[in-house]
């Protein structure tokens, strides 16, 4: 039973609500309202987390002034008790008193937990709805389960919105939440999402499935729930306000994926080319979990990253000859019939930056490493007629690759005497650290040094190569070209390569600056 809304506000509220509500917290009343003032230009939907204040009632006169001054703002007042996962240590009567006063201060919505509301007399809950709309909320901090029985319990208490929040421990928990929203979203005004790093996608796809709105943080440092993203990210990167049933879903799947730059670059490309699509980070702890999600959401295209590039092959319905030879897949397309097709765009990521600079045919190219990325480079370059040499820490994989691709083996002891057109580093040596290099200075005799590593922007190997007069090709070019090829495979449109490079360079620079700022002085 959805209770008939008491007030005019409650009746018309769902029509004017933006999709993103920003949760505002502070330990000081003036700090709380100052934050709201700073946000209000770009965010018209705010949640005042009164429970973060030691004495919530002191903030209410300021909130009243704020609401009078900003009549276009919609505000939720929340004073969650500790027993329900909040910070308010007061009694139920004190909680009701604060919520009542928040309503009188102009907050159009009040949030009360099921645990508190269940202990109230019906008239007490009814009183909360006199002037404001009521959100009845339930948070499960461990799992996403029993959603329907929970809703059954909740709807016995008349409210205007029912907010059901789970915690995702698998990717599939997001699907469970979406199915729940799809099933009941027409009957009740629901707000549904999963907390946790694995639940991030529910914050976006939930609104597509029927959640009236979702919650976001002011900044990465001010999250009120695990996995919460910022409002800016939801709007600018993921374009949540434009998302609809026709929005195609893409993503990068791996473990871990939290630091992947793929969402930044791919969402920028989708926006630039006006594709109605969104690209998400899918933290899959198992392939089984990922594949179940791909089937049920459904996901149109996937970038596959570590550790699944090889393991995914046996689940694909078909792969192109390139991918079969390389033995690793970094791109999946889900066809309309549900079949999964695999591609490898890492080879394009190596070949394209090189062909912008040299004639690959007959070029002498040394590849360091014999793992997945090295295999893509070796096969891609051999196909273009290059003379390829392989040097790897362990002999066996290098010999296998050389044999399969008809390439040659280089010996480390000979490097000082050998001259190449290009040396490519396809090992992780130097990643996240500028002190290690896979080669010594006197072993770098080449016109070009191509380091696949892109974080840090400049590795020790790159520095040494510059000192030897070589031109450096940074790993970011490979990253952008392999992503550009994925974009083309999924959308059939040419990729906006310049824009993609620009946004990813900016993201990398921001990351480097944040890392430097965090370093102890
Ligand atoms: P992988 O399959 O794990 O292969 C790693 C290779 O590096 C193996 O040949 C391994 O040799 C060698 N290696 C590892 N640690 C080493 C060490 N300490 N000293 C010498 N050799 C070492 O990894 P991958 O997927 O090919 O990736 C390789 C690198 O390319 C990573 O840094 C990755 O980030 C980068 N990459 C960049 C892009 C891009 O878009 N820019 C795309 C793909 C990959 P053994 O056989 O002896 O273990």
CATH class of the largest domain: Alpha Beta
What is the count of structural domains? 3
The counted number of beta strands is: 20
Q: Using the coordinates shown, work out and report the CATH topology of the largest domain.
A: TIM Barrel
**What's the CATH H-level superfamily name of the largest domain?**
Aldolase class I
Number of helices: 19
| Biggest sheet: strand arrangement | 7-6-5-4-3-2-1-8
Oligomer: single chain
Radius of gyration using CA atoms only: 27 Å
Structural classification: alpha/beta
Average pLDDT figure: 94
CATH architecture of the largest domain: Alpha-Beta Barrel
Provide the helix percentage.
Answer: 25-40%
What can you see in these coordinates?
It is built from 19 helices and 20 strands. By secondary structure, it is α/β, with parallel strands linked by helices. Strands 7-6-5-4-3-2-1-8 form an 8-stranded parallel β-sheet. It has a 6-stranded mixed β-sheet with strand order 10-9-11-13-14-12. Strands 17-16-15-18-19-20 form a 6-stranded parallel β-sheet, with helices on both faces. The longest helix has 22 residues, at 497-518. The protein is elongated and about 85 Å long. The structure holds NADP nicotinamide-adenine-dinucleotide phosphate.
């Amino acid at each position: 039973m959805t209770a008939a809304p008491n007030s005019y506000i409650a009746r018309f509220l769902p029509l004017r609500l933006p999709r993103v509500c920003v949760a505002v917290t502070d330990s000081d009343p003036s700090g709380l309202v100052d934050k709201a003032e700073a946000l209000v230009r770009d965010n018209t939907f705010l949640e005042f987390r009164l429970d973060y204040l030691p004495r919530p009632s002191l903030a209410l006169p300021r909130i009243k002034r704020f609401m009078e001054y900003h009549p276009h703002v919609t505000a939720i007042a929340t004073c969650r008790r500790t027993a329900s996962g909040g910070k308010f240590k007061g009694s139920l009567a004190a909680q009701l008193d604060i919520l009542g006063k928040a309503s009188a201060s102009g907050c159009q919505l009040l949030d009360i937990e099921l645990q508190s509301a269940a202990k109230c007399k019906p008239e007490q809950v009814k009183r909360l709805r006199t002037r404001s709309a009521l959100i009845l909320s339930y948070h499960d901090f461990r799992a996403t389960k029993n959603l329907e029985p929970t809703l059954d319990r909740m709807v016995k208490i008349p409210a205007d919105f029912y907010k059901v929040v789970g915690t995702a421990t698998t990717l599939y928990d997001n699907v469970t939440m979406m199915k729940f929203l799809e099933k009941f979203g027409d009957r009740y005004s629901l707000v549904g999402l999963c907390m946790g790093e694995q639940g991030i996608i529910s914050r976006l796809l939930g609104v597509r499935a029927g959640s009236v709105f979702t919650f976001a943080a002011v900044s990465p440092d001010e999250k009120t729930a695990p996995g919460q993203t910022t409002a800016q990210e939801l709007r600018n990167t993921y374009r949540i306000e434009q998302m609809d049933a026709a929005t195609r879903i893409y993503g990068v799947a791996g473990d871990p994926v939290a630091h992947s730059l793929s969402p930044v670059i791919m969402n920028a490309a989708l926006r630039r080319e006006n594709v109605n699509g969104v690209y998400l980070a899918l933290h899959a702890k198992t392939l089984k979990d990922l594949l179940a999600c791909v089937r049920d959401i459904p996901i149109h295209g996937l970038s596959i990253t570590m550790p699944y590039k090889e393991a995914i092959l046996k689940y694909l319905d078909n792969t192109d000859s390139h991918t079969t030879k390389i033995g690793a897949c970094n791109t999946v397309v889900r066809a309309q019939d549900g079949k999964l097709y695999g591609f490898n765009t890492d080879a394009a990521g190596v070949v394209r930056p090189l062909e912008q600079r040299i004639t690959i045919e007959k070029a002498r190219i040394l590849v360091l490493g014999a793992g997945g990325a090295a295999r893509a480079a070796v096969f891609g370059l051999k196909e273009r007629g290059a003379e390829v040499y392989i040097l790897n820490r362990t002999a066996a994989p290098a010999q296998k690759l050389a044999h399969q691709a008809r390439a040659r083996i280089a010996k480390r002891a000979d490097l000082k005497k050998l001259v190449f057109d290009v040396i490519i580093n396809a090992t992780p040596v130097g990643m996240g650290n500028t002190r290690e290099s896979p080669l010594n200075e006197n072993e770098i005799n080449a016109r070009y040094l191509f380091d696949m590593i892109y974080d840090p922007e400049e590795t020790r190997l790159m520095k040494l190569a510059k000192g030897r007069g070589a031109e450096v090709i940074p790993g970011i070019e490979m990253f952008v070209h392999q992503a550009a090829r994925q974009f083309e495979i999924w959308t059939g449109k040419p990729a906006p390569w310049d824009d993609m490079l620009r946004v990813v360079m900016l993201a990398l620079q921001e990351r480097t600056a944040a890392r430097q700022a965090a370093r102890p002085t």
